[in-house]
Design goal:
mainly alpha; 8 helices; 72% helix; 0% strand; globular
Length: 254
Amino acid sequence: MPTAEPRRTGINWFKYAAPQRFHAWAGRIVPWALGLAAVLAAAGLWIGLAVAPTDHQQGDAYRIIFIHVPAAWMSMVVYVAMAFWAAIGLAFNARLAAMLASALAPTGALMTFIALWTGALWGKPTWGTWWVWDARLTSELILLFLYIGFLSLHASIDDPRRADRAAALLALVGAVNVPIIYFSVTWWNTLHQGATIRLGQPPTMAAPMLLGLLVMTLAFWAYCIGVVLMRLRVIVLQRELHAGWARQVLGAPT
């Protein structure tokens, strides 16, 4: 007696590796991610600027952390994600993974620039100078150069697949800088303050400050997801222009 074929459950994530399916899926996610980012940013800024108390040491100058800290966190998170997907693309010759690495790089560079710029604004009233060559700031500046190097190297090679491989190697080599940034305040004696939030330890800031920081961090996460997916959709269309579906989306003659 024939037996029924077992029913498959769950989501087949591999089908989204096809550029056409991923392009459509990402198009549905982008407006939700950007809308969520706007709502969270408005709430986070209100908490940080209007609800959180004034710091007893730094005064109101500390409020820059609600932009600076999430941007600094995302600069490292995005680089790790970029290096990861670049490695996947390099190891498995996965087109979409390489495209995702390319889409992540500009957003990571923006987050790093914001972290450096807001850090200078914070450093002037706190340290009395816009910049110091301490370990945390210098390694964060190197991170910006790595992002720029990734983008420049990729743009300098005409063949997209060769460009993906060359930029992936640079991303993997540069990944060693991320733990240096994170642990720099522990490994070396620097002006930059240590981590305020540590896993397994109570926070050293007031609850409204912590809430505003966490909400702004979620806002930055949502923004990065939305913008990266938006950019990835453009890259997919550029790379898949030879395919009929991509030309149809662009309204070009097939």
